Amino acid sequence: MPDLLLELRSEEIPARMQRRAAEDLRKLVTDALVERGFLYEGAKAFATPRRLALHVAGLPARGQDVREERKGPRVGAPDGAVQGFLKSAGLASLDQATIVTDPKKGEFYVAVIERPGRSTLDVLAEILPAIIKSFPWPKSMRWGKASAQPGALRWVRPLQSIVATFGPETETPDLVPFAVDGIVAGTTTYGHRFLAPEAIEVRRFDDYVPALERAKVVLDADRRKDIILHDARDLAFARGLELVEDDGLLEEVAGLVEWPVVLMGSFDAAFLDIPAEAIRATIRANQKCFVLREPGAECLAPAFVLVSNLIASDGGLAITAGNERVVRARLSDAKFFWETDKAIKLQDRLPKLDSIVFHEKLGTQGERVQRIAALARELAPLVGADPDLAERAARLAKADLVTEMVGEFPELQGLMGRKYATLEGEHPSVAAAIEEHYKPVGPSDRVPTDPVSVAVALADKLDTLVGFWAIDEKPTGSKDPYALRRAALGVIRLILDEEARLRLMPIIVGRMALVQAVTKVDGHDAEVAETSPGLQSDKVKQDVRKGVSSDLLAFFADRLKVYLRDQGARHDLIDAVFALPGQDDLLMVVRRVEALGKFLETDDGRNLLAGYKRAANILRIEEKKDGRSYEAAPDASLAARGEPEERALSDALASARQAASTAVEREDFAGAMQALSSLRAPVDAFFEKVTVNAEDPALRENRLALLNALRAATREVADFSRIEG
């Protein structure tokens, strides 16, 4: 079957945009084809620093013929309805329609519309220009004389040529006939701009890839990455060294070259006095180079690996020397930053934080540090940390933000603070917390284990969440500019991994009051002293109750659902537990969910859930019909007058609810489920033998009260109405 080859060659495509652009191109073209009824066997897109390419395999030469029957108005319908039908069906007169008789609806018109399948080549010529003109680059530009015209083409960098061919492997493919802003699709492309700048004629994908390779262009980014990685490993091994691998840098460098050539440079060993992380950041950020280390050791070697886009006539000596000069200059700067920073203690840097705005509505970094330190001290006993050490670590945690090294390399924040704190003789737990309080960053990042680090990390993230909730800067849809989802997930992972017992609501409410003391409420300053909770205004208290208790805790519940769903838990069970009042101890929520999940996997659990659903349905119907609820406790004496199964359920409910409640108080959720399991048999027997809507009004009311008691008993462990199934 025929294939499509499409290449869009431009002056440059930034490395950070290449993967997304290739995927966008594949999706836009294939979606447009499928939407028009053109299915395909496979599609793959590629990107280099100068081109996007797409190969769509197994397309039909033509689309399928379409036959459609369109029902029209009744025979004798008003002329307006008839004319509308003729127009929509593309008919000149009713003579072209068919009359169909329906036994119930009578006679009506039907139009049979037949459309021959369109040529795939014509369809491609239609959809490709529109896709190119509306391509979703994050940033784009216009150029040349045409840029002044309305609707001029925008591209990431000037678009230079288009290759577009379509046809079977066994024949010469056709050129897809279209043009975009004067750039006519053809069969001519170009290889490496320096190593093979001559024009290349291409017709099909199977010829295109090797032709580019001969012209010193490796089309597949993953293959370029593989070349770089293996050549770098081999070069390091040949010098008796080991490559410090960096997936992010490897992805970036592969997007900077079309023909990767790996070289090695060196620097003065005296620079190894600088922390290894700073050396790596300097060489990585400024030169996009990889660092090396001694085999089996953590210490770096005075060498680096660079990736060139050229095969140099001198073997790369000049390129290496140029990179060495720049690396030497950058490391000299880093050494100066390191020596300058060591001369000023972290404690002495704290006043500078008062002049740095964290957020215009949330005050300075200095004010934030005060809040975090107070909260870290409060949380410390709950996570087994020393309060003095937790407070000290929190006060110093942001001090490295005003160091020279972090100012130059923001990615080193925390890490440099730990090194400076260690040099200054701070307690090891304090030094560790300065680095680790940012963790975990993302779902795969390590969770700190030192209790002081845990206390400060929780304080930092909770202050962030409460602060942005207080000023109504919550995540919306896919937008989360302050990484609040990540912060909430970090709190969840810290609590669960460390099995920390925290009641979130009192902590959040207390933080909210402090944050709102320095923000504006309804346009007026909340005149609330941080040290005088008694002066809190009614408006602040109301905001705390309405905003935090429902919204922020619900946000934690949503994040917990996402986290537990990835662990295999059911979201409806989390909803069922969170629906109970006071569920702000996340560790206990998870343990309750785990116990509930295991219970519902048993026959007793499944049958009790079915019995609950039946009871709830009956209650809903009868309460709606009667215009009242049946919340009163069932009368044991009335139950004794009824059927034996009624008496048995009454007795079982009383004992099971008490046992479940006692077990929950002991945080024995498995025991609570076991207590509820005793209800399975009496519930089954009740529904089998007892008629709820008895003729005796008193018995009917008491039986409905029994069903309500069943509903209440299950709420000792969860809201069963939220459970699916």
Q: How would you describe this protein?
A:
This protein has 725 residues and is an alpha+beta fold. The protein folds into five domains: 3-61 and 119-214, Alpha-Beta Plaits, CATH 3.30.70; 67-115, no CATH class; 221-342, no CATH class; 356-568, Orthogonal Bundle (Hypothetical protein af1432), CATH 1.10.3210; 591-722, Isoleucyl-tRNA Synthetase, Domain 1 (Orthogonal Bundle), CATH 1.10.730.10. The protein has 26 helices and 20 strands. The protein has a five-stranded antiparallel beta sheet with strand order 2-3-1-7-8, covered by helices on one side. A four-stranded antiparallel beta sheet has the order 13-15-16-14, with helices on both faces. A hairpin with a 2-residue loop joins strand 19 and strand 20 (524-525). The longest helix has 29 residues, at 538-566. The protein is flat and about 105 Å long. The model is unreliable at 520-536 (pLDDT under 50).
